[in-house]
Amino acid sequence: MRIDGAAGDERRVEPARAAIVRAATELFLAHGFQATGTDRIAAAAAVSKQTVYNQFGDKRSLFAAVVLGVTATAEAYGAELTATLGAVERREDVGPALRRLAHRWASAVLGPNVLAVRRLVVAEAARFPELAAEYHRRAPGATLRTVADGLARLAGRGLVEVDDPERTASDLAFLLFGAELDRALFHPDAPGPDERRIDELVDHALRVVGLG
After folding, report:
1. 1-51: per-residue pLDDT in tens?
2. Based on the domain organization, do 23 and 112 belong to the same domain?
3. pLDDT tier at 189 (50, 70, 90 boundaries)?
C-alpha cells in the first residue's frame, strides 16, 4: 500500500509542478518578481501555498526555474542547426540551409515569448546577477557558440569560406536581430516584425557576412 501511495503521489507531483511553473511564468512576466507573491502563484495554479514551497523551496528558486526553463528553445535550435548543417554535402545547399536556420533564429529571438523573458531577466538582473549570467550562457551565448561551431564545421569541409567563425556568428546575430531587439526592448507594445521583414533581415545579414 505504501508503494502504491508513493507512486500516486509522484503522478500528482508532475501536474502540480507544471501548473505552478505556468502560473508563475504568467505572473512574473506580467508583474515582475517583487510584486508577485507565492500566495498569488498558488491561487493561479490551484494548489496550496505549501505545495509551491514543497516543489521549489522558495520564490527565488521558482523564479530561477521559470527563467532557465525557457532555455529549452535555444537547446532545440542548437540541435536543429547541428543536424541540418551536418547533413549539407554540397556548396549549393549551404545557402538554403543557412537561410532556413537564420529565419528560425530571428523568429525565435524576436518572438513575444522570448522577448518577454528577456525583459524580465534584464529587469531583475541587479537582484539576480548569477541567474542573468546563467540565462545568457544557456540561451544567447549557447546559440552563438553553436552557430560558430556549425560555420567552422562547414568551413572545415570546404563548403564555406569563413576565416573567423565566432566573429561571423556574432556579426550575423547583430545583423539579424540586433536593431529589432533593441527597439523591442524599449517599446514593448510595438508589433514585432512580420515574416516579410524577417526575410529581409535574413537576406541582408547573410549577404553582409558573405554567406548569402
Report:
1. 333 443 444 444 578 999 999 999 999 999 999 999 999 999 999 999 999
2. no
3. confident
Closest CA to 108 of 122, 118, 121: 118
Residues 150 and 47 placed together within one structural domain of the fold: no
Judge if 180 and 203 occupy the same domain: yes
Cα Dmax for the chain = 67
Report the C-alpha gap between 128 and 62 in whole angstroms: 13
CA distances for 83 relative to 3, 121, 126, 146, 147, angstroms: 42, 30, 37, 11, 12
Range of the domain at 176: 70-208
**Which residue from 17, 19, 23, 54 is spatially nearest to 37, judged by alpha carbons?**
23
CB 16 within 8 A of CB 51: yes
- Residue whose C-alpha cell is 541587479: 126
Q: What is the pLDDT of residues 37-86, one digit of tens each?
A: 999 999 999 999 999 999 999 999 999 999 998 888 888 899 999 999 99
Q: Are residues 97 and 48 in the same domain?
A: no
